[in-house]
Design goal:
The structure holds two protein chains of two kinds.
Chain A lengths: L1 H11 L3 H36 L7 E5 L12 H14 L1 E3 L1 E7 L9 E7 H7 L3 E4 L13 E5 L12 E5 L6 E10 L4 E4 L2 E7 L3 E6 L1 H6 L2 H9 L2 E3 L3 H15 L3 E4 L1 H54 L4 H36 L15 H31 L4 H4 L1
Parallel strand pairs in A: 4-11, 6-8
Antiparallel strand pairs in A: 1-12, 1-13, 2-12, 3-4, 5-8, 6-11, 7-8, 9-10
Chain B lengths: L4 E10 L4 E3 L3 E5 L4 E6 L5 H8 L7 E6 L2 E2 L5 H10 L1 E4 L11 H5 L1 H6 L5 H14 L14 H13 L5 E5 L7 H18 L2 E5 L3 H5 L3 E5 L4
Parallel strand pairs in B: 4-9, 4-10, 7-8, 8-9
Antiparallel strand pairs in B: 1-2, 1-3, 1-5, 5-6
Helix pairs in contact in B: 6-7
The chains are: A alpha+beta, B alpha/beta.
Chain lengths: 406, 220
């Protein structure tokens, strides 16, 4: 430890510009690996979630990019009729979020309403930290509506409490009864971009039954349609619905089968993941080469210092340990910087009141951040091993000689 | 008397440069002996010093130091012996410029891990008093004169009270006063502690002040 401290403070830091250069290069390598690793983990999480819908007989609706619906062709009567048609002929999962409302809470965040029908609720298998699961049997104007709240609302609205609010989609004054609290960081991934997700820490999950749908406004009807999933269906039924929607609403929807979803994922996402990995590896390789070059320059500048130390009693095994200690310190510094950056980024969502991105975690970091950091640490160990072993090899190739000192 | 150094070198080859030196070279040195090695440039004087100082173990032949075959010693053992048993008196440039003179002198203590020992502290004080470098201890090498730097190099070499002092052109680039100073310090160590002194030099005056002179010749 004394020898390591001596080398760091008296030898390496005397060429601080090279140390700084090495920290910058390692930080770049860490940031790059972290971004790629987290993106892959997030995509994997998203894919796992989408997998629950990738079943035989399931068709997921998606608005065709060429669909040109005129405002006047879509009205509440037509959408009500559509949902009645859906109710009578199909089993479907509906989940619509993004309905923002103001509701007092200790974090002063806006609250998002998330409307979910029983089928979607069964598929999602939301996990609760407190209370009971939703029930879908209630009368809109008579009963309190059982709801689940996100972890960020649990203090203000504990289980059993009542929320009186004007519902954003029915525009009616409703009484919500908090039935349960969602586990922290419950999320939903985008069906078509699995690495992007919304967190429901500041959301209210409201159960949607047929009565509720018929009382809801156009917003929920159209919004719900965008990601609607037909269950236990077949291609013919999906085509029928597609034609029905096109005829009545003038909107062109595609209904993707399980195979099409898998194909899409493999074609588009797996391909993009491969590109991310390749670019990351190439950049990492360039950065590692620059780091090795930086270190070899340091060695050239410090060869006299190393030789004097070898002459008075330093051994190569101690020198190797010194370099591992030195790179251990540099990696710790760069990891701490990366950690601070991620934590600040996560904290930024709280500061910016981004209610669908604000998350809970140890020091603000969520599980995928920690896993990505572990991957970065592993990559760092490989980088350190490569640089140190090459450095020692290079130093050993230079014969220690008193002649070097004269 | 048992030899402290017993060298029997077949040859030392520089593969990259494509030549070899020290063909069938034999040498025995006794404890407390003062030996000088002279010869033209390139005959292998410094290489011989590197071998004797355990800095170079890549040669054909056998080297016994304190009765042990050097090739049987681990790298850590070699480093330990360089630290404790051998002192190198080099030219005045052989100091780390980013360290103070004091830190340069105390460098061997870092590896001996005994910097805080009372006896070591006393030994350090005795040396700097004897060598007369107290006023420059806190200075950096580049702030000192050549003579002062030479004395600092000498102080570092004797800091661990070595049994052998290997010196490579210790008086090169020094004026006559400083040259005399360093020679006296070397021989005082020899007299006081029976330290073996081996000096590589071009300077015949200096060589003649040793008990034995070895002349290395170029191999034809």
């Amino acid at each position: 430890m004394r020898i390591l401290r001596f080398f760091i403070t008296r030898i390496f830091l005397k060429r601080w510009i090279l140390v700084l250069g090495m920290i910058i290069l390692l930080f770049l390598a860490n940031y790059l690996s972290f971004t790629a690793a987290r993106s892959i983990i997030s995509t994997f999480q998203g894919f796992q979630q989408i997998e629950t819908l990738n079943q035989d007989g399931t068709f997921i609706a998606n608005l065709d990019p060429d669909s040109k619906a005129e405002d006047e062709t879509v009205n509440i009567d037509k959408t009500r009729k559509l949902y009645e048609y859906l109710h009578n002929n199909y089993t479907y999962a509906l989940q619509a979020d993004g309905f923002v409302t103001s509701l007092d809470n200790e974090h002063k965040m806006e609250v998002t309403f998330n409307y979910i029908n029983e089928e979607a609720y069964k598929i999602n298998q939301l996990r609760l930290s407190q209370g009971n699961h939703l029930n879908f049997i209630y009368q809109l104007n008579k009963d309190q509506i059982p709801v689940l709240v996100g972890a960020g609302l649990a203090k203000t609205y504990p289980v059993g409490s009542t929320i009186e609010i004007k519902d954003p989609v029915t525009q009616q004054l409703v009484n919500l009864n908090v039935q349960g609290v969602l586990k922290k960081n419950t999320y939903r991934s985008n069906f078509y971009a699995p690495n992007s997700k919304n967190y429901f820490n500041f959301s209210i999950f409201l159960p949607v039954n047929e009565e509720f749908i018929q009382s809801a406004g156009l917003d929920l009807h159209v919004n719900g349609l965008m990601d609607i999933a037909l269950l236990d269906s077949n291609e013919e039924e999906a085509m029928n619905l597609k034609e029905y929607i096109q005829e009545n609403l003038g909107m062109k929807f595609n209904f993707f089968t399980q195979q099409e979803n898998v194909d899409y994922f493999e074609e588009y996402y797996i391909y993009s993941l491969k590109i991310i990995c390749t670019i990351t590896l190439l950049l990492l390789l360039i950065i590692v080469c620059l780091a090795i070059w930086n270190n070899l320059i340091s060695i050239r500048l410090m060869i006299k210092d190393f030789t004097i130390n070898l002459v008075v009693g330093l051994s190569y095994s101690k020198l190797r340990a010194i370099f591992y200690g030195y790179f251990g310190l540099l990696i710790s510094i760069t990891l701490a910087l990366l950690f601070a950056l991620i934590a600040f980024n996560r904290y930024g969502f709280w500061l910016g009141k981004a209610n669908l991105l604000a998350t809970y975690g140890i020091f603000g970091l969520i599980s995928m951040d920690w896993i990505a950091l572990l991957i970065v640490l592993f990559i760092d160990l490989i980088i350190a091993f490569t640089i140190v072993e090459l450095t020692i090899k290079k130093i050993k190739r230079i014969p220690i000689s008193v002649g070097v000192l004269n | 008397m048992t030899s402290i150094i017993k060298l029997d070198i077949r040859k030392k080859t520089f593969k990259k440069k494509g030549f070899s030196i020290l063909h069938d070279f034999e040498l025995e040195v006794e404890p407390g002996e003062r030996l000088s090695i002279i010869g033209e440039s390139g005959v292998g004087k410094t290489s011989l010093l590197n071998i004797m100082g355990l800095l170079d173990t890549h040669y054909q032949g056998c080297y016994k130091l304190f009765g042990s075959s050097v090739k049987d010693l681990s790298q850590n053992k070699l480093a330990e012996w360089r630290n404790k048993k051998i002192g190198f008196v080099l030219q005045e440039s052989a100091l780390i410029n980013s360290l103070t003179i004091e830190d340069n002198i105390k460098l061997p203590l870092l590896y001996a891990n005994n910097e805080k020992d009372r006896a070591v502290q006393d030994h350090f004080k005795r040396i700097i008093y004897k060598i007369g470098i107290e006023p420059i201890l806190k200075k950096k090498p580049l702030e000192c004169s050549g003579g002062q730097r030479s004395r600092a190099v000498f102080a570092r070499a004797v800091m661990m009270n070595p049994q052998i002092i290997l010196s490579d052109e210790p008086t090169a680039s020094l004026d006559s006063k400083n040259k005399e100073n360093i020679i006296n310090l070397l021989f005082d160590m020899n007299k006081e502690f029976n330290t073996t002194v081996i000096t590589v030099t071009h300077d015949l005056d200096l060589a003649n002040r040793h008990e034995r002179i070895i002349t290395l010749e170029r191999n034809e």
